[in-house]
Amino acid sequence: MAEITADQTVITTADGVPLKTRLAQAERRKKIAAFALVLPLLAFILITFIVPILDMTFRSVDNPVVAATLPRTLAALETWETGKIPDEPIFAILAEEMVAGAKARTIGKVATRLNYEIPGSRSTITKTARKLKRIKQGPYKEAFLKIDKRWGDPDLWARLKQIGSPYTLSYYLAAVDMRYDAEGSIVSQPEDRQIYVPLFWRTLWVSMLITVLCLVLAYPIAYLMATLPTGISNLLMIMVLLPFWTSLLVRTTSWIVLLQTEGVLNDIAVWTGLIGDENRLQMIYNMTGTVIAMVHILLPFMVLPLFSVMKTISPSYVRAARSLGATPPRAFWTVYFPQSVPGIGAGSLLVFILAIGYYITPALVGGRTGQLISNFIAFHMQKSLNWGLAAALGGILLLGVLALYWLYNRLVGIDNMKLG
């Protein structure tokens, strides 16, 4: 090819535009068209995935209720000496703002927010606001103490001051069983209120156990599907996919019928003489039921990645190893198994991420001891309405999953994970 020099004539199109410019315009139009095609998908991901995560992150630190309802009280508490009962002027300001908050129907939110920090304080706030409507003049300090003796506790005032900031980390502290004390220092929750850290560890342990059990059960199934004749392999594939055609709720409740004390499995065990009628096994509404049901539900998510990788492994590799003197087990472990590792990685990562955030199955078959952290996130979202704590728990769970994903990428490499 001849070298192009600067003094050569520029090649142009029929309308006189340089060919290089025209090619750049055509390439730009293709990129715009491609972006327009994926724009609906990007918008869908943004609306259904990115925006909820950002909203959850904001709610985990957002704390506007007290600051908006009691601004003058919080300003007066800035000069208050911690450890003592406030003076009359602060009580007077608080009384005025509580009456105004009761009329605006916002004092209940303040009471709920304070109740997160001091259990039982909601009734103190609501009762005081209700009775203050009948008090026209001071002294308000005496009136407050007469309505509820808790107003004489400096810790109550310290907590009220702490939650007055429009942004807070108290939700994240509560999510790891810690809190602010009256002096503003971070301390551990009382032992009888430390529930979330053990729940996180339980969720992590159960998810890993389910992943290992799914791998142990799915590997031989996928191996058979990949090595048997096509007709039998297709039949096995239909059996693997069959659970997807059944409602998750139906599959979960069917395990209740099978595992309960008077259920099918216990009846068979009693009928065969394996156990006595008075020694029926408790396999439901505990961690045993949660693990069994979740392994059954998540097993196809391990089988399919394994099968898709194993199907691409040529059987001639194992035959070549055996022809060179390797025994069948040695040929399998040194030749076949390493080639299936990408499928193991893909299936394990998929099952683990699904298991760590599962909600319906533990809620139905887990009982008290089989609950995972997702069940408590749902509880705070739907029943206690403590959305800040729910968002903090969800944020920590998300960070944990991302950290494990990063660790997997560092140790194994995400490029080595294949689905076929």
Walkthrough of the structure:
The chain is an all-alpha fold. The chain has 2 domains: 65-165, no CATH class; 196-416, MetI-like fold (Orthogonal Bundle), CATH 1.10.3720.10. It has helices at residues 19-59, 65-69, 71-77, 88-104, 107-117, 121-132, 140-147, 154-162, 170-175, 196-227, 230-241, 248-259, 264-271, 287-310, 316-323, 328-356, 360-365, 373-382, 387-411, and strands at residues 178-180, 186-188. Strand 1 and strand 2 (186-188) form a beta hairpin. Helix 14 (287-310) packs across helix 16 and helix 15 runs antiparallel to helix 16. The longest helix has 41 residues, at 19-59.
Number of beta strands: 2
| CATH architecture descriptor of the largest domain | Orthogonal Bundle
| Distance between the amino and carboxyl termini | 42 Å
- Content of β-strand: under 5%
CATH fold group of the largest domain:
MetI-like fold
Structural class: mainly alpha
CATH superfamily of the largest domain: MetI-like
